[in-house]
Each structure stands twice: as C-alpha cells, then as structure tokens.
Amino acid sequence: MQGVSIAIFIKHKKGLPKKKVQYADLWGKRQNKYDWLDENQQQTTKWTEIKPTEPFYLFTPFEESLKAEYDKGISIPDVFINSNVGILTARDNLTIQPTREKIETTINLFAKMDKEQARKTWDLGDDSHDWNIDSAKKDVVENTISKEKIKPILYRPFDIRYTFYTGKSAGFHSRPRNSLMQYLEKGNNLALITVRQVAENDFNHVLVSDTITDCRVTLSNRGYGYTYPLYLPTTNIKDNIVQDIFDSHEKEASAAVPCNIKPEIFTLFEGKYKIEATPEEVFAYIYAVLNTPLYRNRYIPFLKMDFPKVQFTDDYKAFLKGAELGQKLIELHLMKSAELDKPQFRFEGKGDNLVTKVNYTDNSIRINDNQRFENVSSEIWNFRIGGYQVCDKWLKDRKGQYLKQEEIMHYLKILMIAGHTLKTQKQLDEWYVSAFP
Question: What is the 3-state secondary structure (H, E, C) of 62-112?
Fold first, then answer.
C-alpha cells in the first residue's frame, strides 16, 4: 500500500551544526507501526545519516558507488537531438479508430454533423482551452478530408490504430506535436519511446515505433512517454530512402539523411573503438541495454528518478553483439520478425469471438465462457511494458467487441512477441555480464 513519510525539520541556532540529514525505515502492518510510534521518540530511533548530493538531493539512502557507476552512462536526452512526448488527442473516442475505413467514416460524419449532435455521438464532453468542436471541425474541413492525412498511430503496446493527422495544434488533435511527429508521420523511420520517471518498482518503460505515437504508449504514473526518432528526414528526401538505409546498413546511405543522434556520440565511438558506428547500430545497442533485466534491476533507484542513462561497453565485439540483440527485439516489437510466422499458441472453442470477460487460468486466457487462447505461460501473461500488462490490456480494450480473424492472429503474435522477448532478455543478461565485467 501507499507509504507514509514523517519528516521532522529542526532549525538550529547560529553556531550549531547544519545540513545534517538522518533517515530511518519502518516496515510492517499498520498496527505494528502505530505501536512502534507510540513506544518510541526521535531520540530512540536508529537513524542512518545520509548526505544528499546534486542533482536530486535525495532524502533516502543509496549506494554512492552504484550511483557513480550509473553516472558513467549518457542520459537518453543527451544522445538524441530532437524529442517530445507523444500526441495528446484530448478526445480519443473521436480521433482514434481501429481501422482506416472507420476513421474515414468518422471524420466524414464529424465534418457534416451538428456540433451538439457530435458532442453526444462521440461523448466529447465540454470544450476546453486546447480542444473545441468548432476548431476540430474547421481543421478537418480545411484539410479536405484527405485520405493522405489518415495515419497509423501506435496507441498502446502492439496496438496500432488510425487517426486523421493534420499537425495543427488545438485542431482535430489537442497537441499533435508536429515539430517531432513530422519525422514519423510519413513512415520509413524508427523511434525509441521511454519515460523520464517511474513510480512503479520496476522499469520496463521502453518500446520502439515506426509510426506516430500516442503519449501514453509507455505510460508511467509519473508522466507520458517521450519519443526519439532515429532520423530527421526533410521534405526533399525521397520517401523510400530511410527504408533503403535500414535494409542496406551502409554508412554512405546513412549519411544521406540527417540523423537525430548527436555527433558527439559518434565521436565517442571513434575514440572507444577506432571505427565508425552506424546510427542503426547505436540505436539498436541502446534498445538492447534498456531491455536488459540486469541493467533494469541494478539501477532501478535511478531509473525511477530521471531519464535512463546508457553505458557504452569498451569492447567493440560486445557492442556489436548488443546491437544484434537489440535489432532482434526491434523487429519483434515492430511485429516484423520472421519468428512470428510460426504459431506457438492456439485459439480454442466454438463461439462468436465476443470478448465478454478476460480471465487467465490454467495456462489459458479466456475471452468468454467457451473460447480461449491456449498454452500461455504465466510469464507471458504477466509480461509488461510501461504501466500495462500487455496481454491483458489488449483484450480488455476490446471488451464487448467481436474479434475478427485478423485480430485473433494479431493477438497470437502478441503472445509470441512476449515469449520471444523474455527469451531474448535472458540472452541480454548473459551479454551484459560479458560487456561490463
């Protein structure tokens, strides 16, 4: 349950010691805590003296040597040039739809519908300072309801939906973050998604996207997810050039598109390895580190406070191995891995595929009384990204809906992604030990 902090501040007279901070923990059930507090006072408490240091000046103890070790890494915002949180729509019922056809139908209806009728139809609520129906309708009409504006959006982990994206603030979307999303809305790019802080006791707030992103994809109780594109393509670059780069992994091709990784990172690599690293390798290596359980568990006190910091191994072969494992995860998490073509799970039972309840028992995920996904381990069922238990979240978001065959196949792939990710993370732990002996 939520803890309670008791703080005692003492203001000393002149000439007496200052800046002394002492700390004590008390764990247990409520009544035991009350009893202890009744029987003790400040003088009888067993205090631990701590010395808060910049930048956070923490009033809790931590291992100084571990912090020094962690601080050797580079903070994610110091790796990339451009970043921002994901899109804030302010009205998901209207702006986010499951298919291209559905969003096209929706915006056509919305453009023609009376304002108050639209408010009722999509449960839009009252207008606010950064979103109102008049401005949203105007934005849709001014863009002539162009099909080119219909874009896929990573809404939740492995949950691609569709939206009408114009890039105008306080228009159809409240905050479309066009200064950043312009690099993703045309496709053929990659982006890292992570958070600044987590309130949870574990860190798994990392994902990758090749589309525009919603701000809650890797949601934490402490805030929205930040998006870091790999490339910053300009309008005069051909649409297929970034994909060509990903396919070729040629340094000459990589140089053709402005990279979002800061030049000093590549200078660091040249100093470490006496060889150039490609943007794709750096990106994949970072993805590998952030997905390594040993890294997450070791540095959780610091991951809870600020953006992740990534250490770069001194061993070039270890760097390449990390990038290889990171690329494997990237392909899995973009649902493009060949490993997803081999079914490992089954959808069993006769019925209409209506999701009435989501329940996990005996290695089965039930969606109603008669139908279920079979052969699912508890580790896969409990697999998490950010604030979401992925396999549970995806189904519960479709409660009351009939699953189409392609949605069933999609969910089977999500189960496989979870399974393959867990296996790859075991490999990452082994790699991490060798990369940082």
Answer: CCHHHHHHHCCCEEHHHHECCCEECEECCCHHHHCECCHHHHHHHHHHHHH
| Three-state SS at 423 | helix
Count Cβ neighbours within 10 Å for each residue of 379-410 and write b for 16 or more, e otherwise. ebbebbbbbbebbbbbbebbeeeebeeebeeb
pLDDT of residue 20: 81
What 8-state DSSP symbol labels residue 259? B
Q: What is the pLDDT of residue 220?
A: 67
- Among 241, 245, 228, which residue's Cα sits nearest to residue 190? 228
CB-CB neighbours of 55 under 10 Å: 7
Q: Please determine, for residue 370, whether its predicted confidence score (pLDDT) is greater than 60.
A: yes
- Kindly report the number of other CB atoms within 10 A of residue 145's CB atom: 16
Q: Which tokens go with 218? A: 């890797």
Query: Do 319 and 325 form a contact (C-beta atoms < 8 A)?
Result: no
* 383 token code pair: 């697999």
What average pLDDT does the segment 181-190 reach?
90
For residue 18, the model assigns a pLDDT of: 66
Cis preceding linkage at 55, omega within 30: yes
> How many Å separate Cα 140 from the centre of its chain?
29
Cβ atoms of 319 and 285 within 8 Å: the answer is yes
CA atoms of 275 and 267, how far apart (whole Å): 10
